Amino acid sequence: MFEKIIYPTKLEEFSLPILKSLTCLKAGGLREVVLLHVIDTDVLYAMRRSGFSVDEGQIKNSVLEELNSYSEYLEAENIKSKVRITVGPVVSEIIKASIEEDVSLIVAGRQKRDVLGELFVGSTTDRVIRKSKFPVLVTKYHTLREIEGKVSEQFCSDMFRKILYLTDWSPCAERAKQYIPILRKVGASEIVVAHVIEDRFVESEEDREKELESLKKEFQAEGFKVSTRLLLGKAYQEINRVATQEDVSLIVMGSHGKGFVEGILWGSVSQRVVEYSEKSVLIVK
Can you tell me the distance from the alpha carbon of 137 to that of 282, in angstroms, rounded to the nearest whole number? Predict the structure, then answer.
């Protein structure tokens, strides 16, 4: 399921560490990484309008030199790599490259978090998830947290250590479930299986507890240490609260659940989890 991934990168501070954190996917079948950099036409246009001289050739050469160093690292890890540098609208180019390369997974970064705000992902990542037909891994490698009045940096170098899997037993959640055994191969040893009840008049707690217990036995048979959580309240808030409380390294969930309008590929719960969570999130369509 992770045989070929595409890694769009702006070559920012944590781009290479994030790439290094993904090499463990080799144990889950990773064979090739497409390194993509999109030179944004909107940015080029704005620079030219401001009177700056823009040499696209020089920009491409500079980007190529940096991406080649990423390729060298991957080759040393016995992972094939391919470099793509394109010019155009960023989201469209990412989606286009993903389709042309027929990838298994898109790895999307996020903006560096302002400790006073809640913005964890930018509009580019949001639109990539919305338009992609492929699963998207949103990496939250670096976060800033304020604890007792002090700001501290946190890094997630072991992204697949402990999983929070969200289910509502919908087809989308079941597709996300198929990735769990692969994550076991790449280092995941613990899993928290959770379901959120927002309306007790619609769902029976007793029934859901039984279904969670069944999933627990299923994952235990695959070698996981498993715990279950039946959550009551606002879905995305409960999910993010438990993710922090349980100190998970990755949230795995479908992009939408039961009752979602056919053809809309980005659900409100998953969107809010991705936006506000301090944890990396794997979104499965």
Answer: 4
Q: What is the CATH number of domain 162-284?
A: 3.40.50.620
Using DSSP, state whether 102 is helix, strand or coil: coil
Question: Model pTM?
Answer: 0.88
Each residue's pLDDT tens digit, 95-116: 999 999 999 999 997 654 544 4
The predicted structure's pLDDT at residue 220: 97
Cα 201-205-209 angle, rounded to 5 deg: 155
CB of 97 closer than 8 Å to CB of 86 = yes
Q: In the prediction, which pLDDT does 203 show?
A: 84
With a cut of 60, say whether residue 121 has pLDDT above it. no
**What's the burial of 211, exposed, middle or buried (CB within 10 Å: 0-12/13-18/19+)?**
middle
Quick check: 44 pLDDT over 60? yes
The two most distant CA atoms of the chain are separated, in Å, by 66
Backbone φ and ψ for 183, nearest 5 degrees, come out as: -65, -30
Chosen CATH of 4-155 out of 3.40.50.300, 3.50.50.60, 3.40.50.620, 3.30.310.50 = 3.40.50.620
85 φ, ψ to 5°? -120, 120
Amino acid in position 139: T
Helix (H), strand (E) at residue 56: helix 56-76
End-to-end Cα, the chain, rounded Å: 13
Angle between helices 268-276 and 235-245 (to 10 degrees): 40
Span 266-274, average pLDDT? 79
Bridge partners of 225? Answer: 190
Please name the helix (run of DSSP H) or strand (run of DSSP E) that holds residue 266, with its range, or none: none
